[in-house]
C-alpha cells in the first residue's frame, strides 16, 4: 500500500504523549546514525514508547499507514542495522528499560529490551550471579539490540553466544501483534522454539520487548595469563591443551598478532606486560570456584605448558589488577578510531586452523590492491572469531569499498563467514552470498515475506527482497 506519512504521524501523535514522539529539529543527533560510519539520515520521526503495549501500538499504526519502522537500541552496532531510513519511523527502546524480576530459584532475570547490558551485569553480580555476555560497549548497548544481533563478546568459548542465555522472549510482530512467552524453564520442547526466529534477525522479523535471561553462578576467582608465542601451530596446540587441562574453567582465549601488539604498545601507548617481541600473543582467562583450589591449578597448568614448549614467555596474574592489565592489551582496539584515524573494522569467522593463513593472505592481498595498505589482526580465536582493522595510510578518503571487497573475498576463499558477531545490517548485505548459499538466501526471503508481507520492519537490512546478484 502507498505510504501515508502525514496520517501516520497524526495517529501516533494522538496515541502517544508529546515527549514520546520527536520530529524535525527535536530529533536528537544520536538518533540520526549508529556507529557504522554511514552518514546521518533524518527519519520521519523518532518514537520512544515505554511499555511493550506501546511498542505494539506503534507498529500497528505504522503498518496501517504503510510506514516503515526501524528499531533502535543503544546505537553501538557496527553494521548499520539500526541506521535510520528516510521516511521511516525510528522506534527507540531507550525508555523501555528496567529489570522486572530476579528469580534466584530459577536463576533467571526478566528484563526490558532497552536495559543497558552493564545494568544487567551489575544486578546479577549484586544478586550473586553472573550474566556472561560482555562487550566493550557494555555501558551503552541495550539487551534488545544484543539479542537482535545475537551478540558474542569475550567469553563465548565457555558460555556461548547471546542466544544461549535466553529462556523466554516477548516480541512484536510486523502487524503489531504482541507475543508474550516469558518462559523460565530450560527444558521446554512444546512445539517450535519461536524465539530463535527473532534472536539474530536484526529487527527484520519482529521487535524484542522483554526477555528472560538465564544467569550463571558467580565465579569465585579469575586467573589469567598473557603468553608470547612463536608460531600459530603452537597457538592451536595451546588451545587444545587449555580445553583439556582447564575444562569448563576456560572462559577466554584471545589471540593478538604481532602487528596488533605493535600498534597497541607504540601507537596507543598501552604498557606491555611482556618484554620482548613475539610472533603472536595469547590471553587465557579461567574462571573458577575457589582461589585456594583453582588458583594453584591454573598456575600448575601454565607451568606445565611452559615446560612442554609451546609458550615462549608468559606473565601470570597475581591479582585482579593484573587480569585487568592483560585485558587492557586486548581492549585497546577501542582506541584505534582516535589513534589510527578513519579505517574499516571487520568481524569475521574462520576455521581455527586456517586463521593465520587467512591473516597472511589477507594482508598480502590488501598490500597488492590498496595503496599504502595497513592492517592488524586479533580476536576470539577460541570460538573462531577474528577481528581485523584495515586502512590506506595517508588517504584523504578511505577506499572502503575496495578494502571490504578484498577482505570478504578472502573470507570466502577460506570458507569463513563475513559476520561472526556484529550482524549484517546495511554494510555487509551485498556480501552475504559469500557466506550463505542461494537456497539459504531464498529461505530467508520466504520467511521475511511470510511474516512481514508489507516489508514494514527494518526494510533493506540484512538482505534485499529481490535477488540483485
Automatic annotation (TrEMBL):
InterPro entries in alphabetical order: FAD-bd_oxidored_4_C (IPR004113), FAD-bd_PCMH (IPR016166), FAD-bd_PCMH-like_sf (IPR036318), FAD-bd_PCMH_sub1 (IPR016167), FAD-bd_PCMH_sub2 (IPR016169), FAD-linked_Oxase-like_C (IPR016164), FAD-oxidored/transferase_4 (IPR051264), Oxid_FAD_bind_N (IPR006094)
GO biological process: respiratory electron transport chain
SUPFAM superfamilies: FAD-binding/transporter-associated domain-like, FAD-linked oxidases, C-terminal domain
Gene Ontology molecular functions: FAD binding; oxidoreductase activity
Keyword Flavoprotein: yes
Boundaries of every FAD-binding PCMH-type domain copy: 39-218
Keyword field: FAD, Flavoprotein, Oxidoreductase
Pfam families: FAD-oxidase_C, FAD_binding_4
Cofactor field: FAD
Family label: Belongs to the FAD-binding oxidoreductase/transferase type 4 family.
Listed name of the protein: FAD-binding PCMH-type domain-containing protein
Organism in which the protein naturally occurs: Pleodorina starrii
Amino acid at each position: 500500500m502507498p505510504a501515508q506519512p502525514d496520517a501516520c504521524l497524526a495517529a501516533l501523535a494522538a496515541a502517544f504523549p508529546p515527549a514520546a514522539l520527536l520530529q524535525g529539529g527535536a530529533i536528537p543527533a544520536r538518533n540520526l546514525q549508529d556507529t557504522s560510519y554511514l552518514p546521518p539520515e533524518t527519519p520521519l520521526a523518532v518514537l520512544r514508547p515505554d511499555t511493550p503495549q506501546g511498542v505494539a501500538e506503534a507498529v500497528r499504526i505504522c503498518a496501517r499507514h504503510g510506514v516503515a519502522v526501524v528499531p533502535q537500541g543503544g546505537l553501538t552496532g557496527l553494521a548499520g542495522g539500526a541506521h535510520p531510513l528516510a521516511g521511516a519511523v525510528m522506534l527507540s527502546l531507550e525508555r523501555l528499560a528496567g529489570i522486572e524480576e530476579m528469580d534466584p530459584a530459577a536463576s533467571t532475570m526478566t528484563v526490558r529490551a532497552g536495559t543497558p547490558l552493564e545494568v544487567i551485569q551489575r544486578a546479577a553480580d549484586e544478586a550473586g550471579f553472573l550474566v556472561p555476555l560482555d562487550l566493550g560497549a557494555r555501558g551503552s548497548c541495550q539487551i534488545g539490540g544484543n539479542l537482535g544481533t545475537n551478540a558474542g563478546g569475550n567469553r563465548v568459548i565457555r558460555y556461548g553466544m547471546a542466544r544461549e542465555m535466553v529462556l523466554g522472549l516477548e516480541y512484536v510482530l510486523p502487524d503489531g501483534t504482541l507475543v508474550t512467552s516469558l518462559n523460565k524453564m530450560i527444558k521446554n520442547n512444546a512445539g517450535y522454539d519461536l524465539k530463535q526466529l527473532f534472536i539474530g534477525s536484526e529487527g527484520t522479523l519482529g521487535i524484542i520487548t522483554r526477555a528472560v535471561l538465564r544467569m550463571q553462578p558467580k565465579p569465585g576467582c579469575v586467573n589469567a595469563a598473557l603468553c608470547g608465542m612463536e608460531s600459530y601451530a603452537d597457538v592451536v596446540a595451546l588451545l587444545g591443551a587449555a580445553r583439556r587441562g582447564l575444562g569448563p574453567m576456560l572462559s577466554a582465549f584471545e589471540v593478538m598478532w604481532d602487528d596488533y601488539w605493535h600498534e597497541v604498545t607504540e601507537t596507543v601507548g598501552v604498557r606491555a606486560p611482556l618484554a620482548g617481541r613475539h610472533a603472536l600473543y595469547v590471553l587465557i582467562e579461567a574462571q573458577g570456584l575457589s582461589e585456594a583450589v583453582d588458583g594453584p591449578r591454573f598456575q600448575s597448568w601454565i607451568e606445565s605448558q611452559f615446560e612442554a614448549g609451546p609458550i615462549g614467555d608468559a606473565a601470570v596474574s597475581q591479582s585482579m589488577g593484573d587480569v585487568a592489565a592483560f585485558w587492557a592489551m586486548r581492549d585497546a582496539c577501542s582506541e584505534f578510531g582516535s589513534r589510527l584515524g578513519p579505517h574499516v573494522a571487520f568481524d569475521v569467522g574462520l576455521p581455527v586452523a586456517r586463521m593465520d593463513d587467512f591473516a597472511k593472505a589477507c594482508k598480502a592481498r590488501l598490500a597488492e590492491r590498496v595503496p599504502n595498505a595497513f592492517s592488524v589482526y586479533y580476536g576470539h580465536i577460541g570460538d573462531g572469531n577474528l577481528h581485523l582493522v584495515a586502512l590506506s595510510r595517508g588517504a584523504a578518503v578511505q577506499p572502503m569499498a575496495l578494502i571490504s571487497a578484498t577482505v570478504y573475498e578472502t573470507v570466502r576463499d577460506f570458507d569463513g563467514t563475513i559476520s561472526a558477531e556484529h550482524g549484517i545490517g546495511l554494510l555487509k548485505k551485498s556480501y552475504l552470498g559469500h557466506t550463505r548459499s542461494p537456497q539459504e538466501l531464498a529461505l530467508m526471503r520466504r520467511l521475511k515475506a511470510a511474516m512481514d508481507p508489507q516489508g514494514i520492519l527494518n526494510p533493506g537490512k540484512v538482505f534485499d527482497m529481490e535477488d540483485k546478484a
